[in-house]
Queue: 4 jobs
Job 1
Amino acid sequence: MLTSWQRHAEAHPRVADAAVALLLFGVSFSGSMLSTTDPSDRPAWWAGVLASAVGCTALLWQRSRPRTVVAVTTVCAMGVSAMGFLLTPLLLGPVMVALYWLAVGSGRKVTRAYTLSVAVPVGATALFADTVNHSLWLKTLNPIAWILLSAMFGNGVQLRRAYVESLQARAAHAERMRIARELHDVVAHHMTLANAQAGTAAHLAGTHPDQAKQILTDLTGTTATALRELKATVGLLRQASDTDTPLEPAPGLARLADLTASFASTGLTVTVTTEGEPQPLSAAVDLTAFRIVQEALTNVSKHARTETAYVHLTHAPDGLTLKVTDDGHHTAPATAAAGHGFGLIGMRERAHSVGGHLHAGHRPEGGFEVTAHLPPHPENTEEKRTT
């Protein structure tokens, strides 16, 4: 019920402000019954109600002119105090609400300045207008405390909103990075295969037309797969209300055989070996493992002068260790070969995103090796980075 009321208030802010002003005006009747003067000189109750009415009416502009509203409600509070009314929260309601909204929408410096500008004159007026000698806490410190409390509460709400906005921004950035990695992997892999297949088909067209025809058939499958995966990746950007064809499932190690077979037309033979009993992997870890193998083999096809590559999967209760090796001579720039290329950076980011780690570098016996260890389920890597 509270949530529905909040939604209604957000949709109709003027109505909500009017309701708050009306409520505060209603409770001012009770506040007008308490005074700081002796009974023979007690002010008329309607004077306090009239001053409260002015302050409550000013609250209708609290969103558009918060500073002006704070000034008006402060003058009203000082007026009822000077007339002899005891400043309780019942009469301080308008100025408290005005300070709250000012603190919600303004910086700390502005909030502190206005809070001080309200607390000091209101407290001083209450102190000198008292002729009954109420306790210092009741007549002065109590209203000041309520004024400070309203400003602090508004400032806390502002900090909470800023925190939520920062979390949303970080989540949006993480999602953009995830989509960027997906696009990089899909484009890098399939375009590399398509380029190699097209080049091989052109080379064999004159001497071995049958082989060229088969490679062109494989090329059609490569581009079709690329289009499907690009559609699935770009589909992540769709709005929740879109009703297009459902996206196909994200790839995983179950499609490893298709992946390795796709490199055959480029002249690269991939041998896959496994060790241990396969353990169930979460969808995120399964996708990460597939993309790391895909990117590593794509790098072999692009940069290594070799016809063979090896993929070794080691299953264990604590996760999956995958290793992609080759024994060729890499022609990539030294920075990429040393483990600082964009593809290698993407693989490391993928491994870290699920709580794993990845190492890539030259093998002492020649060739290149990519090794990654991934947990069965994603871990909270944010905590690990801060410890």
Job 2
Amino acid sequence: MTIDLADAEQTRALGERLASLLLAGDLVVLVGDLGAGKTTLTQGIGAGLGVRGQVASPTFIIARAHPSLGSGPDLVHVDAYRLGSLDEVDALDLDSSLQDSVTVVEWGEGLVEQLSEDWLEIRLERPRGEGGADVRVARLIGHGPRWAEVTLPGS
């Protein structure tokens, strides 16, 4: 499924809509170039989940946990940009919090999919020079039985 996003606000709004579908144990893998909107989308997910703390890129700390302010799942936000191997991913011990949280991993393609038989892949593209600086395209791809029956926003 492909969703056109006119600006950063629509990207955040998509994240909020996605949050209504996300459950503890869900793994979301964000793919896209620098500036494509991965952190912006995660901010929307955090807002939709109702978690504590400002959702910002965890580039230098690698992973940041945002506890739920209500009865929903916590958010674990990971930036795998600086990770170069499966061993470095394993050292984060993400599988210990995976079942209790929604885990969103930026730059995780090819590194974190083995953590779960089900994951939601979101490919964010930011075409250059087309229709404005903030235009983005989101491609949502569900993997595994968990996502086979879920109707994703925009479909």
Job 3
Amino acid sequence: MIFKRAKKNTTSDHIAVTLPQIKQAVRQFEADMPPAINRTALILEDKSIDVSRLKRYLGGVPRQKFYMSRETFEIFEESDKLVPYYLDLVQSAVDNYISDTGKLPLIEDAYLPEVHYRLLHSERYLKETPPFPLYITEEEMMLTHRAEHFE
């Protein structure tokens, strides 16, 4: 009986939150931390955010999972959980390629600055190809999966 009562109390902490609320909580977490600690301290091995550490900013622990890219700091809902995995994988490959060659690994004559996966794969920078296109932004050569970023 004690176990059941304790279990009920822990689930009552679970709340529904929106993506903007999580983003705000992550920003507040980072602002409250010493300078040496940034938001990547919240990222677990599977790229999910340790939402239990955001409880004080949200008023409870979110029911749903959220994910963050370690490279771009972009935050995603459960439905997009593969995006941060591929962002981190490809961002690292792009950074290494640029460092080694001084060139951007872009598809030639493409309308948008789309990452050339086959080039990165053939040059051994990329082991796995994402199932969606990624684009290089002009802001610090960071990747995005959003084509509308360029419109």
Job 4
Amino acid sequence: MTVQSRLRIGPVRRFTRNLLCPVDLLGRPLLLKYTRDPAEARKEIRGRARLARHYRVPTLHAHLRVPGGHLLVYERLPGGTGQGLLLDLLNNADEPSSGLDDYMNRLTATYRDIILATARPTHPPDVVRKLYWDRAVPGGRLDTYYAGKDFLVADGLVDIPASCLGTYTLSINGRRHHLDWAATLRWLRAHFATTEPIWAALTQGDPTDVNLAHPLAWFDYDTAGMNSVPGEFANFLWYASALGGWLVPTYNPAAFADHPATFALIQANAPELRRGHFDRTTSTIHIDCAPRLSAPRRAAVTAYWTQLVRPVADRLWPGEDLANLLRPYLAMRILGVYNLADLTPEDRLVILARLAEAMSPAFDPATYFCPLESPCPAP
């Protein structure tokens, strides 16, 4: 037996700050994950152990200190180019498949049972803080992206500094909105500085379509633990309806190198900006934008909303307004994943419009996450 037949190494892929590499060792499929941050590696190990009591996760065979970081050696689940992830079910160019329906039924049933079984009021210091609280603290991502900085709303279309947005009316698809940029940032920081208990439950914490395997299993555990329930919901809904099909493949295409069908569907999932215009006579910014979402993504969002969000909300927050519960988490996902200044002017204008709609008193999450031509069922 040759060395080559005993050890086969696949292509190395970068995901944010981590490197992943598939390896076959003596016929055993493994996945190597390298991270430079020792604290993140420890969180991943602890998070996976907590999650394994309730969710299907790959076996962790070993974790090793190596030069410059940590190496985690996982069981590699079946997969390959264009297969193995929820993403691949969503990349069907046609109507949603029965496979996607079955998958979403199982996904939402699993989450519903485990969230309701583990949910409890929890003080913010005791929840996983990475995706929300840590980004709002002084020196966090909100400060890194936006503190002491300014940018144009949309260079060449709406040449107004974002800091001045509060002095103008936004007409978005004919509806009047108001967005005070500085006040929104202050409100987000203040919201995530409060100490009142929130409903939290045991989840993976970052439920994206690349962190959910097909057949159903969970990857990536540094945010696993007691997570805010509305934060969990906002994360999936925003990723499925905006990040996964549009923004991430546009601005981080390397993450989808093994799932090329993603790129063919960007146009089907990217909102169409039909007009961006500033009327100085009325101090109004006109934004006409047609939301677009492929049929499989609409089906996934609808199933998640009706089969998970609504039943859990009815149990944990009977009679409360889901819009107010989801709003701060959604706003943080909008502002805290990509620096808006790094987006193209057109994309930035669309995202600011989406932020204004989320901050509006009329914000309705049941329709916000699905295009109007195929709305989610009303709550």
